[in-house]
Amino acid sequence: MKDIIIVHDFDGRPYFKAIEKNFQCKFINSRPIRFLIRDIVKKRTITKDTIDSILFLFLLPFHKNQTIILGMAPFNFRLLFYGMLCYRNKVLLHSSWHQWLGRTPFSYINIFNKIFKKLWRHYLPRFERIIAVTKATKQSILDFSYPLSLNIDVIPHVVDIEPITRAELDKKWNSKCIQGLFVGRLTPEKGIKDIINISEKMQSGLLKDSNIKIAGKGYLEDDIVHASKRISGLLYMGYITSRDKLRDLMKQSQFFLLPSKKIKGWEELFGLVIVEAMSQGCVVIASNHIGPKEIIDNHKDGILCEESDFVDNTLRNFNNFHTDIYYYKEISMRALDKSQKYNMANISQLWVELINNIER
Considering the chain, what percentage of its residues have pLDDT values greater than 90? Predict the structure, then answer.
């Protein structure tokens, strides 16, 4: 089994499960000093990952003939060090960032911004391949790097969750009461106030016996707790870490809500949670952001709507549910089918083909 070194700004394990299926992976953090301080202050011990990452950093000039995946956001100054790996190794850059010409996760004073952008333009052609998580990311990198010639492939994140069975799907859509679900950060940009607004308007008429469940944490948690006390159809489930419990919630829900709001430098990107919900036969109703747009075909395997129309659009679909359940069940079945495009077998095969090609 071939060894792959994965260098990432954070813990790369959640993003590279599809590679681990067929290769022996060693995970390195690109910010080991920061994580060393965290280990000492919070954990009172130094983890093996931190030790490995520090050793890797100090031995940078001596690494050779390795296959390395660099998961680093633009325009991280650390490329000044890790970029040297390109000269004696086969290095693949992995990116999910979609605004290479706009706001980026790493920003400095103007003169340093210019320097580090030039540094990145210098190294981009020197990567063996560039792996973009979405087509939008690929296009953004090409726009930034023009007129450089780059080798860019698109490989989405893997969704390693057991899909809902047909019997479970049929049972879910036999219910006459709607169960909606939101999973994510409890922050304004995630559209939490829209969720509360929708649940308030569901308290009478056809929707009075339906509910929306919220799972997550964030600084709007108190707002959710207070709202759930006065709105019978709004249920706060707390922060759930168990993937099995999250899967069960999705499996029970007909609709998955993602009312994201654009803010400066952020919009909803490729959300694993969208595909996970689709794999459980949920009809995803999402804001028309760059990530959901790439996953969902509107009114075919999900529903996209403008931010300003999210509340009314969702309520309209909830009410239509009672007159045409079959329409929404059809959407959920197509969503389930599409979710398998992102399953372990398919995504791991894309990685195998790519890595085998660069090793020839």
Answer: 84
